[in-house]
Design goal:
The chain is built from three helices and no strands. By secondary structure, the protein is mainly alpha-helical. The protein has one domain.
Length: about 100
C-alpha cells in the first residue's frame, strides 16, 4: 500500500501544479481582455484556445446579468481554488493515510 499511497500523493501534487499554471493563465487572459488585443497575436491565440472552452459554458450559464462585465474568469478561479483546497488536499491526505504516515 506504500506504493499506492505515494502514487496518490504524486498525482495530487501534479494536478495541483497544473491547476496553479491554469490559474495564472486565466488571470493573464482576463487582464488581456481588458484591452483590445490583436487576435492574430500568438500569445492571445494561445490564451483564448486554452481558456475559451472553460469560459464558454460558464458564460452561457450565467448570461449577461451584469451587462458588459464578464465574470466567467472569477467563476473559474473560484472553481480552481475549490479543487485545490478541497479535492487535491483530500487526495493527498488519503495518500498519507494509506501510506501510514501523518499528513503534513
Amino acid at each position: 500500500m506504500l506504493i499506492f499511497g505515494n502514487l496518490l500523493i504524486t498525482v495530487a501534487e501534479i494536478v495541483n501544479m497544473l491547476l496553479n499554471v491554469y490559474y495564472w493563465v486565466v488571470i493573464v487572459a482576463a487582464l488581456i481582455s481588458w484591452v483590445n488585443p490583436d487576435p492574430y497575436n500568438p500569445v492571445v491565440r494561445f490564451l483564448r484556445t486554452v481558456t475559451e472552452p472553460v469560459f464558454r459554458p460558464i458564460r452561457r450559464l450565467i448570461g449577461h446579468r451584469l451587462g458588459p462585465i464578464d465574470i466567467s474568469p472569477i467563476v473559474v478561479i473560484i472553481g480552481i481554488l475549490f479543487i485545490q483546497k478541497f479535492l487535491v488536499r483530500s487526495i493527498i491526505e488519503i495518500g498519507y493515510k494509506i501510506k501510514g504516515g501523518a499528513f503534513i
